[in-house]
Amino acid sequence: MANPHKTSAELEEYVVKDAPPTVYYVPAFITEAEEAHLLQQVYRAPKPKWTQLSGRRLQNWGGLPNPKGMLAEKLPDWLLTYTEKVSALGAFAGKTANHVLVNEYRPEEGIMPHEDGPLYHPTVTTISLGSPTLLDFYRPVDQTQTGVLQTEESRYMLSLLLQRQSLLIVQGEMYEHYLHGIRGVAMDTLTEHVANLSLAGGHVGEVVPRTTRVSLTIRHVPKICHTNLLLGRK
Ligand SMILES: O=C(O)CCC(=O)C(=O)O
Ligand SMILES: [Fe+2]
């Protein structure tokens, strides 16, 4: 079946075949110099730009998405370069990304399994900076199995090894049906459940220590409201 999201042919060599449709993993999407520049820009942001959450902190760029529509704010040039570069690959079906979430995780920090939900549907893309991590995917709780205890462990499906400087694109069933999260551990041990092991240059049994990782989650938020429309309303 043809990919309904029409990503460009260029990407097809990066599809992760051992995962449900569709994941693309592009190693070395940016250079080490670009990574250093991006990290410098992230840490140059004023302190109030950071929101501290339990287990990570984040910066929101492009506006605050909400179900009624995002009040769009212009992205700074240092992010625009990359929202355009990722969009040029066809990741957003011809549209241009307009939103970036910057997450910073120290070792032993992570993010609980979650779905990104309808606001960003149908594509999420992530550039990783500073440190590798495993991103884990889980099956949703099976509502028909009410009597059975469904632990996180029993719902675990697979992991992706995200190396620094890489780009990840998640769409389709992998976006809509499964949950994703990052365990709060100081190091990751690679297993045969890492679906992109060879693309990411890892091997089974390898222990990958974590240092501070910064991720740029680049998305297209389709529902936009413009300032002039808001201001024009009585
Ligand atoms: O840091 C990452 O790679 C994942 C972030 C994430 O899942 C999110 O912000 O929704
Ligand atoms: Fe997420």
UniProtKB/TrEMBL annotation:
Alphabetical list of InterPro entries matching this protein:
AlkB-like (IPR027450), AlkB-like_sf (IPR037151), ALKBH6 (IPR032862), Oxoglu/Fe-dep_dioxygenase_dom (IPR005123)
Annotated Fe2OG dioxygenase domain residues:
96-222
Cited Gene3D superfamilies: Alpha-ketoglutarate-dependent dioxygenase AlkB-like
**What molecular function does GO assign, one term?**
dioxygenase activity
Superkingdom of the source species = Eukaryota
Q: Which GO CC annotations does the UniProt entry carry?
A: nucleus
Give the cofactors, semicolon-separated: Fe(2+)
Where does it localize?
Answer: Nucleus
Q: What is this protein called?
A: Fe2OG dioxygenase domain-containing protein
- Origin species, per record, is Electrophorus electricus
